[in-house]
Write a structure and sequence with these properties.
single chain, 132 residues, mainly alpha
Length: 132
C-alpha cells in the first residue's frame, strides 16, 4: 500500500495538474497557476529523464532480478545447491547494478526532492524500490 500511495500521488497529479492548482487555492488563498505546477505535468522548469534510457535499463534489471530469485527458489525446492547458489549470486549482482544505476540517476537528476511534488514522488517511489 505504501507504493500505491506514492504512485497514486504521482499519477493523480500527472493526470489532473489543474486539481492541484484548485486545492492550492483552497488551502493557501489566491495562488497563481505558475506558483504550483504551471498547469502542466511535469511542472514548468523540470527537466525529466528520457524514459527509454536509464529508467528502462533499471526496470529491466529489476524485472530480471525477480526471475533470478525465482530460479534460486525453485532450485532450493528441488535441492539443487548449485542452481540456488548461482540464482542468488545473479540476484545480488543485479541488485548491485540496480543500486548503481539508481545512484547515478539520482546524482544527475535536474530536480530535487524538496520544492515540488514531481521530485518528491519520484525520489520516494523509486528510492523505496532499492530499500525493499
Amino acid at each position: 500500500m505504501f507504493f500505491v500511495a506514492w504512485f497514486w500521488a504521482y499519477f493523480n497529479t500527472a493526470l489532473f495538474p489543474h486539481d492541484v492548482v484548485q486545492q492550492g487555492t483552497e488551502l493557501l488563498g489566491n495562488v497563481q497557476r505558475s506558483d504550483v505546477l504551471g498547469g502542466q505535468w511535469p511542472p514548468k522548469g523540470i527537466e525529466t529523464f528520457d524514459p527509454w534510457h536509464l529508467p528502462l535499463l533499471n526496470t529491466l534489471i529489476l524485472l530480471t532480478s525477480g526471475t533470478t530469485v525465482t530460479w534460486a527458489h525453485h532450485a532450493l525446492l528441488e535441492n539443487d545447491r548449485d542452481g540456488l547458489k548461482w540464482g542468488l549470486i545473479c540476484t545480488i549482482l543485479l541488485g548491485l547494478a540496480f543500486t548503481s544505476v539508481q545512484a547515478y540517476e539520482y546524482g544527475h537528476a535536474a530536480f530535487h526532492y524538496s520544492g515540488n511534488i514531481y521530485g518528491a514522488t519520484f525520489f520516494m517511489a523509486t528510492g523505496f524500490h532499492g530499500a525493499t
